[in-house]
Design goal:
single chain, 350 residues, alpha+beta, SH3 type barrels, Alpha-Beta Plaits, five-stranded antiparallel β-sheet, 8 helices, 8 strands, elongated
């Protein structure tokens, strides 16, 4: 009797040791495989990666089968019982599964149609293209969340879940959120006003809190702005108390320069007014000929003048650079001096 118990415990202990070693070997192989693939993922062929995953799955199944055989566990009977139970449950719930599948299919279909429709509306050419694109994005976001919430509630009701308490809970939860998350509600309200009062649209150039850039996304809670250095500012809508929108009208290119006091001011203005309009041939974004506005300042060393011209929205930067270059060339061609800073010293006689 004692010998029998000794053999039993010896066998159980050996099984435990073998099972532990087998599991550790499998875990070690999986860890090694993941690290090996992660380090060489860019250099390995996709079929090598797929084969390694298949090998891991086969080893996992083999380990489970070996451990079941080691402990005299009837794995086939166990799996057969699970399969029979699954078939019974499937037969009892086939109607609910079909109904749930139909609900999901309709929800996905509605989302797909709304996405395509709203995307096409946003891409149509027209005077209000930016406005249409902005409103289309917001409507798409609201539609997506609404469809998913309604679909989940319908599926829950199909499976016998009472959704009335859930709806009541959503109402109570909304009240709690409204009391405890006033800043969040403020951001949502501000987002509605920004969108529907047309403060700015996606693609507009704006400046908020000293940050100037292009609006790349507008949501009900946040707005994303990207500047010319590709830096993105994510700003809560409630924080946008004041802003400058540069995209509401044409832009104005401004160039200021100075000439010597010895030069003829009227002659200089006439020459520039005759030559500068030719620059429109190189820059189609100019919508109004450059014009010398006149003398803006009598500086210590120069007579300062200003040139302006209207361009398409936010296209004045390149025009300003080109006009400065052209002004310098015209003044040099006509020998009109652009003076350096100079100081005149008067020495009294003894």
């Amino acid at each position: 009797m004692i010998m029998h118990h000794t053999l039993f415990f010896t066998s159980v202990g050996l099984n435990i040791v073998v099972t532990t070693l087998t599991m550790l070997a499998l875990i070690g192989f999986i860890i090694f495989e993941n690290r090996f693939i992660k380090k060489r993922e860019d250099n390995l062929h996709k079929w090598v990666i797929i084969s390694s995953y298949i090998l891991s799955f086969i080893l996992l199944l083999g380990t489970v089968g070996f451990i079941a055989w080691l402990w005299n566990f009837d794995l086939i009977t166990y799996l057969t019982g699970i399969w029979d139970g699954f078939i019974i449950i499937l037969g009892e719930s086939i109607g609910r599964l079909i109904s749930s599948t139909i609900v999901l299919f309709i929800a996905l279909l509605i989302l797909r149609i709304s996405k395509i429709t709203l995307k096409r509306i946003g891409l149509k050419e027209g005077p209000n293209q930016r406005r249409k694109r902005t409103v289309a994005r917001v409507i798409r976001s609201i539609t997506k969340y609404t469809i998913w919430v309604v679909s989940i509630l319908i599926i829950l009701s199909l499976w016998g879940v009472n959704v009335a308490p859930a709806l009541a809970g959503l109402g109570i939860l909304g009240l709690v959120i409204g009391l405890g998350a006033q800043k969040f509600i403020n951001d949502l309200i501000a987002g509605f006003f920004i969108i529907f009062e047309h403060h700015f649209d996606v693609g507009d150039k704006i400046e908020v809190k000293g940050f100037k850039g292009e609006v790349i996304d507008i949501g009900l809670k946040t707005t994303k702005i990207k500047n010319w250095k590709n830096e993105i500012l994510i700003l809560s809508n409630g924080e946008i108390a004041s802003l400058i929108n540069f995209s509401k009208d044409l832009s104005v290119a401004v160039v200021e320069f100075g000439i010597s006091y010895r030069e003829d001011m009227q002659k200089t203005m006439d020459i520039l007014n005759a030559e500068l309009p030719k620059i429109r041939l190189q820059f189609p974004e100019i919508v109004e000929d450059p014009k010398v506005m006149g003398v803006t300042n009598l500086n210590q060393s120069s007579v300062d003048m200003r040139i302006t011209c209207k361009t398409l929205n936010e296209q004045h930067y390149g025009v300003e650079r080109a006009m400065r270059k052209r002004v310098k060339e015209i003044l040099d061609e006509h020998h009109i001096e652009i003076p350096f800073p100079q100081v005149v010293i008067h020495q009294p006689k003894d």
